[in-house]
Each structure stands twice: as structure tokens, then as C-alpha cells.
Amino acid sequence: MLHAYPIRFPAQLRPHLRALRKMRGLTQTQLGEQVGVSQARIAEIEANPGVVNFEQMLQLFSTLGVTVSLQENASASRAFDFATDHSVKQAKENRAPASDDEADSFKTSKDVQSASRRNFSIRQKKGTW
Fold first, then answer.
1. How many other CB atoms are there within 10 angstroms of residue 89's CB atom?
2. What does the pLDDT read at residue 105?
3. Could you tell me which of 66, 18, 24 has the C-alpha nearest to residue 44?
4. Which stretches of the chain score pLDDT less than 50?
5. What is the value of pTM for the model shown?
6. Whole-angstrom Cα Rg for the chain
7. How high is the pLDDT of residue 31?
8. Which domains, from first to last, does the chain contain?
9. Could you tell me where the Polar residues compositional bias lies (predicted)?
10. What's phi and psi for 88, nearest 5 deg?
11. Strands (DSSP E) found in the chain
């Protein structure tokens, strides 16, 4: 039987990481050997999951035989839609074009509509986040 463990905050991972390791019959040392880190590092991760980046956490999950699945929260989705629509409208109303070319591109551009019928704009990626 598959189990789902909803996680919204890093602190919620603490009991799950330890329980998953124990369900697999692994000690911290054994798990550390499989992942390529020390027992002390596994203990640190179990105590504070926020000490690793997402890629490292995915590697740990893979070793423990679990996957990550994102599920949209209906109430959060509605709040996000409202906030996004409002901020996009505000940005368009308050922002003056930097040049005549940019003003022309606003006049001729069309919003992109996704399969979910939500309007969004595609912008170039600048830098990293």
C-alpha cells in the first residue's frame, strides 16, 4: 500500500526521515554509507532537514525508496490566482514603457493562455534565483 505524507514545512520532515530509515532497517551509519556521507551528517539532517539543499534531499529520498510529488492545494490556488491577477494588472497600469519600441510591443503582444485558461506572460529568464 502506498502512503502519502503531506509536508508543508521542513520541520515536518524530521519524523518522516527517521521513520523511513528505520522502516528500511537502516542505521544512520548504513544510510550515510549508501548516500556517501557520515553518520554524523545523517543525524544532522534528521534533526534539521533544512541543512541540505533540495538536490541532496532528493538523493536521500531516492535512497530511502520514496519520491516527491507536488499537489496543488485548492484554497492556495485560488489565493494565488487572485494575487497574481491583481499584481499583473497593477504592474501593467503603473509601469510606463521604457521606450517607443517597448510601447509598440505592448500594443501588439497577446497574453498567452494555458490549458487551464489562466492568462500569463512569458518573460526571459534573468540570472538565477
1. 10
2. 46
3. 18
4. 105-114, 120-122, 124, 127-129
5. 0.54
6. 22
7. 96
8. 10-64 (1.10.260.40)
9. 111-122
10. -65, -45
11. 112-113, 119-120
